[in-house]
Amino acid sequence: MKIKVESIADAKGQETPSRFMLGIRTIEIQAVADRWYGEQACYYRVLGSDENSYILKGPLEDGSWELVSFTHKDSRGTELEYEGKRELQ
């Protein structure tokens, strides 16, 4: 999903997202938890001011950004409960 992102230069001069817009809502980025590089753009795992987690991709060649993933703050993610003894094999 295409989104509008505002960014600032970090200490190394690289652009880092600072806020983004989802429709009419503006989400301030509280923290960048992770960043990795893809073939066409960087990916950023960020914590929003709404306490949800997002993965943003950008900037793309045309300067646009995409929302790749959203995780609600109350989501348990892929955590599974396990009954029984745990052993490493």
What would a concise description of this structure say?
The protein is mainly beta. Helices cover 0% and strands 55% of the residues.
Structural classification: mainly beta
Give the oligomer, counting copies of the same chain as homo and different chains as hetero.
single chain
Number of strands: 6
Taking pLDDT < 50 over at least 5 consecutive residues as the criterion, the unreliable ranges are none
- Gyration radius, in Å: 16 Å
Portion of residues within helices: under 10%
* Largest sheet composition: 6 strands, antiparallel, barrel
Beta-strand portion reads over 45%
Instruction: Output the strand order for the largest sheet.
Output: 1-2-3-4-5-6
Which descriptor suits the 3D outline?
A: globular
Quote the distance from N terminus to C terminus: 41 Å
N to C succession of SSEs: EEEEEE
Overall mean pLDDT stands at 86
| Number of contiguous helices | 0
